[in-house]
Design brief:
Growth Hormone, Chain: A, 3 domains, 477 residues, 17 helices, mainly alpha
Length: 477
Amino acid sequence: MQAVIEETRDPTAYRWRWVALAVILAVEVMDLLDSLVTTIAGPSIQQELGGSLSLIQWLGAAYTLAMAIGLLTGGRLGDIFGRRRMFVIGAAGFTVASLWCALAWSPGVLIAARGVQGLFGALMLPQGLGMIKQMFSPRDQVKAFGAFGPVMGLGAVGGPVLAGWLVDADYFGTGWRMIFLINLPLGIFAVAGALRFLPEFRNERTPRLDLAGVGLAALGGFLLLYPLVQGRELGWPAWIFVLLAAGLAVFGLFAAYEARRDRRGLDPLVTPSLFRKRAFTSGMLVGLVFFGALMGTGLISSLYLQLGLGYSPLKAGLSTLPQAAGTMIGFIAASAGLTERYGRKLLITGTVIMAAATAAVAWIVQSTGTALTPYHLIAGLLPLGIGMGLAMAPFFNIVLAGVDDEETGSASGAMTSMQQLGGAFGIALLGTIFFNNVPGAGFSDAAVRSLLIALVMLLVAGGLSFLLPRHPRPEAE
């Protein structure tokens, strides 16, 4: 492959680049499916492996937290050692970790395997995005990145349904384990395809790896998430709140360390100057709250439908189809010129629609109780998905509009990590609120109270959005 690049002197002339794109999309699908499937399969996993109900939260939180921390340095490893090499290692490791998940014999083993999945996923995903920018001309990049929309949309639609179907079908007696075994053919295709079709790229300047920064970020994230997930079962002892305070202190130490590293002329994980820009700092807060509400709401819906109403995993997955369909409608509408025309207004409008739809879902749950059917949820989930698509479409480009060109790479990595960290935070917070209310209030009231907290989070995100730039970066569009 390297010979092809050297011979043409132009990576954009690489004739296998569209096949290479299919390889990159395969790992995107693996990551998307694995971030969604345990939301539906979680109750079945907990029933078979045992353990406490917090296992259901950790299945998602361990993956997203590991992904968030790994993304801070995953792209940099590609710059140092080569993008194709890191892509192959990441895809192979993700595949082996998937097999480990499928063979897990205890809750602790499965949680550890999910964390390893997230770390290898963070290693492979940034490489694919970087190689697309190097393999394709600016005009073809629009087509290449445009392929992500339908693929991600189909993954969002099919992920919960696929998980429910595989758990219910119980192929070869595997039950929930099949949701991880299905990654094996995808992973093998990704590794073989990468070795055959992906060219190798290296940056002229090799940055240095900030291992101490990675360690501080990982420690801070764990100190914040562990108390939120386990505090309820432990009875909220005083040391739990000490851990929460320590987590905030560690992130403060992380910021100070990164600033000191930058002053010494070394490569920081996150460029400190970004935190002096209102667009970036407010965008980080908006994303943390927004994606927390988004992921947490998905978990609450699955828990209520399966544990509260006794839905099968497949029926629970099918019940979410209106939201997935609405998300695709929202994305299509936003891509039809609304993003360029309305920018921040579109983001705020989408968030307000989501908040109203969340209130509608809470009212539906409260009024129908145990008589709830999937048809009742359409009136709330369809507009929830539409608002989600409208809000997410312009988000990253609007935040990046407020940073300088030389800061874009660092800002993009930090924003993607924040998205994953927000998801882990939402799963921990809303899951804890739900389980904390079930014993005294019952499943319906627990779901309603959790959804109302998600509603408040969306309103906070919408209010903070007024601090963002009015329009996205033109060249990013």
